[in-house]
Amino acid sequence: MQRPRFELPEVLVMKILSKLPVKSLTRFNCDDIPSVYGACHGLLCLLDSSTDKAAIWNPSTREFKILPPSSIQRPPYFSPFEETYLTLDNVSFDNAAFGFDSKNDDYKVIRFVDLTFVNSEEEHPHPHFMDQVELYSLRSNSWKEIPSPDYTPTYTTLGNNYVDGICYWKTETGAYLDFRGLILSFDMGNEKFSILPIPEFVGFFPEYYVDLLVFNGSLGAIVYPSQRIDTSFDLWVTSEGVWTKQFNIKSISGVVHPLGFGKNGDLFLRDTNDEVLLFDASTQELKKLEINII
Fold it and tell me: Any coiled-coil ranges, and where (predicted)?
């Protein structure tokens, strides 16, 4: 009997691809497993958070475009408290996004750069942090620095965070018991950041998780409680700034995290054993798949 085929969500595909012994990936020459971003027009972006290495990969044609290293200067940091310039101790790259700029017919990669500075003369120096944002253009084959937004991404999305020329990240403001969730967006065409509110439907922010994802070509938010063993999920989708609730999935025992939606609207979930489950919203059936994400 032939097994049924499942359209896996992008986040799950990316996890699988990042672990496969693909010969093309050896050209990336990365010491650690790279993060996989995409997909856009069948292309994926690979990024090593600990180095300056990045690449665009076409799995179907096996073409592999190594991106040039960044030539952007890392500014010195003057500490008014210590009254001295600090030494750059570490550079890391994270929260990237990959998408297409239809206005200029160009593929672009955006990434956030975390800079750590220390006083090299101290035995146990206190680190100081700065942020930069870099944007790569395939047309010019170069990186450039763009102004950093007031908010930086604090959470990754479920798979691709790019929809119709706009990249999205979840961010937040405030302190404990006064957290406020926000959505940071970046327009690939005009290269500008914007801030969108997470609507009030979420409820009290620390009591709920909100994961951004792409659902049927639109930006979606899947909302679920943070402190319950039996977890229910609400899916909301936005169109022109208006949020609409798509459906609610009642309590599912043992599920700890959503992984994303397949093309048929099936929800993939991770359980407490790091195994993948498939939930059919139309039949309310839960199936265990022979996939482990460890």
Answer: none
In order, the DSSP letters of 84-135 are EEEEEEEEEEEEEEEEEETTTTEEEEEEEEEEEEE-TTSSSPPPEEEEEEEE
* Predicted confidence (pLDDT) per residue in 16-36, tens digit: 555 555 455 555 555 766 778
- 222 exposure class (CB count in 10 Å sphere: 0-12, 13-18, 19+): buried
Give the mean pLDDT of 191-201.
81
CA distances from 80 to 85, 86, 122, 148 (A): 9, 11, 16, 22
Rounded Cα–Cα distance for residues 157 and 212 (Å) = 5
What is the residue extent of each domain of the chain?
Answer: 35-197
Question: Rounded CA gap, 128 and 277, in Å?
Answer: 42
